[in-house]
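Ticket #4471: structure export looks truncated?
Reporter: QA, pipeline team
Priority: medium

Steps to reproduce: submit the single chain below to the structure queue and open the exported record.
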Amino acid sequence: MVSRENRVLIGSLLAVWLAVIGIGLTGIGAQSAVVTFVVLAGIGIIAPQLYLAVTDADVSPERRVRIAVMLAIVIAMLGFGRVEPLERGVIGALVAALFVALVAFEFASGYRETAGKQ
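Actual output as written to the record:
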């Protein structure tokens, strides 16, 4: 039997595949590195990890959020080094926003943890 986590991850791969097919058929964003990054990192990694962070009790939400952000940063560093400067700046801004959101999430979760102990 396939676990719930694996079903979510397979569903995200299916969503990435459908997005790639849709981009290929319409041609909208086909040459854009930003669209590629959003499809791969956003739909393929971040969305399922955030969904599992909210709904799955087996793994801590903090770990899921960390995994999502770090994998998005790795994808940005490995796959988008040779793009136009404007697109590189947009992807960099998206990665920076993800990192700031991770830091804010860590602060909030640490605050909730210490406030709950008092």
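Status: closed, not a bug. The export was complete when the record was re-opened. Leaving a note from the reviewer for reference: The first helix runs from residue 4 to 26.
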